């Protein structure tokens, strides 16, 4: 058991001073007391706080609604269970015979709860800074994927979502100039919302010009929010 817990501590990147806390975090109520339900309660809040801060810092331009959706996706039961599977948490759980027989080590609810309990145990044993570091390590890959997906979204899509939420309107793009010969034209586009021009852009195609206008509009809207 001690050897197994040593490997688990390596996976989460935290060596416990009070090993009993980790053992309690891994004890399901079906096994006996003390079980991990109180730790699960605390760990839920610790994870939510850390994930909130990480999202707040990673996405400085996102509004509260988008951040809330991202956080919900990250801390939902199945997401926590997947993270627990990634560190092989299930193999270390103490389960009653009934749960053991019905595949409790792979149940999302049990795995998610155990992960929350482990985070709480780290928090109690080492303080918030250590808990923050552990949670950041566990969620880093998923937040990075979200960041890449957000960057991949085009500026026009981002602008439309923003203006619909803020103004209940969609942006309007207008070509205000075309320059150069037919085979090598440059287009200039403005984008307006609510009768006000928010962005201007130019490009070798209307699409490129619209993207640049939308990028400028997003920047200006953010500055005036």
Characterise the protein shown here.
By secondary structure, the protein is mostly helical. It folds into 2 domains: 2-152, Orthogonal Bundle (Ribonuclease iii, N-terminal Endonuclease Domain, Chain A); 155-224, Double Stranded RNA Binding Domain (2-Layer Sandwich), CATH 3.30.160. The protein is 64% helix and 11% strand. It is built from 10 helices and 3 strands; from the N terminus they run H-H-H-H-H-H-H-H-H-E-E-E-H. The chain has a 3-stranded antiparallel beta sheet with strand order 1-2-3, covered by helices on one side. Strand 2 and strand 3 (196-203) form a beta hairpin. Helix 3 (37-58) crosses helix 4 (64-75). The model has no long low-confidence stretch (mean pLDDT 93).
Brief write-up:
By secondary structure, this protein is mostly helical.
Average pLDDT over all residues: 93
- Tell me the number of strands: 3
Adjacency order of strands in the biggest sheet: 1-2-3
Number of helices: 10
Choose one word for the global shape.
elongated
CATH architecture of the largest domain: Orthogonal Bundle
Question: How many whole angstroms does the radius of gyration measure?
Answer: 25 Å
Based on the structure, what is the oligomeric state of the protein chains? single chain
| CATH hierarchy class name of the largest domain | Mainly Alpha
Largest sheet: 3 strands, antiparallel
Q: What pattern of helices and strands is seen along the backbone?
A: HHHHHHHHHEEEH
Helix content: 55-70%
- What name is given to the CATH topology of the largest domain? Ribonuclease iii, N-terminal Endonuclease Domain, Chain A
């Amino acid at each position: 058991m001690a050897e197994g817990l040593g490997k688990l501590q390596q996976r989460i990147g935290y060596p416990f001073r009070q090993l009993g806390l980790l053992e309690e975090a891994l004890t399901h109520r079906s096994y006996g007391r003390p079980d991990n339900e109180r730790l699960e309660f605390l760990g839920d809040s610790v994870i939510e706080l850390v994930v909130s801060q990480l999202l707040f810092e990673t996405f400085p331009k996102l509004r509260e609604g988008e951040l809330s959706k991202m956080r919900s996706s990250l801390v939902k039961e199945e997401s926590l269970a997947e993270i627990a599977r990634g560190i092989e948490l299930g193999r270390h759980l103490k389960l009653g015979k009934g749960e053991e027989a019905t595949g409790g080590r792979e149940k999302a609810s049990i795995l998610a709860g155990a992960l929350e309990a482990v985070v709480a145990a780290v928090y109690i044993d080492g303080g918030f800074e250590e808990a923050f570091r552990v949670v950041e390590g566990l969620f880093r890959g998923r937040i990075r994927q979200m960041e890449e997906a957000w960057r991949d979204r085009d500026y026009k899509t981002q602008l439309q979502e923003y203006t619909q939420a803020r103004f209940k309107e969609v942006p309007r793009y207008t070509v205000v100039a075309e320059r150069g010969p037919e085979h090598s034209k440059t287009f200039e586009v403005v984008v307006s919302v609510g009768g006000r021009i928010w962005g201007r852009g130019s490009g070798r195609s209307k699409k490129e010009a619209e993207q640049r206008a939308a990028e400028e509009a997003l920047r200006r809207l953010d500055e005036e929010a």
